[in-house]
Amino acid sequence: MTGKPIPVANPDTAVFWDACNEKRFLIQSCKSCGENQFYPRAICKNCQSNDLEWQEVSGRGTVKTFTVVRHAPSPAFKADLPYVLALINLDEGVSTMMNVIECDVEDVHIGMDIELTFELRGEQYIPQAKPISKG
Ligand SMILES: [Zn+2]
What we know:
Elements: H1 14-20, E1 26-30, E2 36-37, E3 52-56, E4 60-69, E5 83-90, E6 95-100, E7 113-121, E8 124-131
Antiparallel strand pairs: 1-2, 1-3, 4-5, 4-7, 5-6, 7-8
């Protein structure tokens, strides 16, 4: 038990969180207008169609911007300090907030290439970003 918050799935996000537990990251693609979207929603944010399908992402992206967290928002995060909270652009054209882990905070930079990884909290895998492994 980490004490860190664990997401609670709702009808719009249950498919996403279940896929995370298989270490797959899904976004929604609109069959009416072709737009991709994340986070999961009941309808397309572009054209309001409900004709959405799930699509697994490549797992690659870049750091759009980030901050180094040096004061824990709650005691559960104290052991991680300092850590990076970043806005990640995935290659499929959607963005989301994640921690950049498995590297020194001083190595994180805007434009840095990342790949997705998953961190277990309780019984839920949480998507996170890490530097692309070499070789
Ligand atoms: Zn649409």
